[in-house]
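The freezer alarm interrupted the setup, so I double-checked each line after restarting. Inputs confirmed:
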Amino acid sequence: MRLQRTIKNEVSFEGIGLHTGRHSKVTIKPASRDAGVTFVRTDKHTVIKAHTGSVIDTAFATTIGYDGVKIRTVEHLLSALAGLGIDNIIIEINGPEVPILDGSATELISIILKAGIAKQGKKRPFLRIKRPFIFEDGHAKIAALPYNGTRITYSIFFSHYSFGEQRLSLDITEENFAREIAPARTFGFLKDIEYLRTNGLAKGGSLDNAIILGENGILNSSGLRFKDEFVRHKVLDSIGDFSLIGFPIYGHIIANKSGHSANIRFLKKLLSTPDAWDILTEQQIPTSPVLHINT
Ligand SMILES: [Zn+2]
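Predicted 3D structure, all chains:
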C-alpha cells in the first residue's frame, strides 16, 4: 500500500543557479498529510505552490511564480522528490533559482535521503489514466495511456553528428529513478550559449554542471555518464514537470520531441479533459483491462 510520505528532518543545501548564476540556499522541511509540495521564497515572503497553475515560464527551465515573485529551474528538485515518492514537503529558498549542483539529481537524492523519509499513515491517491489521451503541440507529441504502473517512454532527436535519435522506455520505480535517471546531467549546445547569455540565461552554466556539446563532440573531459545521457536527462526533467499535476501519474506517458513548454501544456490539457483520468488510491485501481502496446 502506497502511503503518503514526507521527510523526517529539515536539511539545507546551497549553490548557484544555472540560468541566473545567483547563489541560493534551500531548506527542505517536513509537511503535513495532503499538504503537497510548497515553495517559499523566504527573501520575498512569498509562498508558491508546486502546481501547473503556478508555472509562468518554460523557456530552457520550468519557472514557477506568484505575484511577480519567481523561482526558476524547479524541475530537478521536483523530479528527485517525485522519484523518491515524497508527496508533502516545504521548500524554502532565499533566492531566485534552485541551485543546479552538478546538473543531475544525484546530489538531490542524497540530500533527501539524508533528511530521511517518513510515511504518514494515509493512502496516496494517484491520477490514473483511464483512456488514451493524445496531445500534439508543434512537433512535440505526448500520449498518456492506461498502464498497470508508471512508465515513461521518451524520444528526442537532434541533428548533431554525435547523436541523432535517443529513445528510452522504463517503469518509473524508486530504484530505476535513482540508478537510471537521477545521474543524467543537464546538457546544452555550445552554439546556443551565446544566445542564451544575451537573453539573460545560462549565466551559471559551466562544464561542472552541464554537458556542453560543441561541433566536434562533448567538451567535458570526463565524458558521459551514459551513452544516452541526453534522453535520460529529458526523462528526469519530465518527471519533475509531470509532478506539477499534483498526483503521481498511474499510466504510460509516451513523449516525442517534448520539452518543458509542451510538458506543461500537455498537463493543463489533460487536467481539462476529466473523462481521461480519475483520482484513485492503488487498491481502487483495477488491474484490467488496460491497453498494452509495444514501445
Ligand atoms: Zn534539466
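Quick read of the result. The first helix runs from residue 75 to 83.
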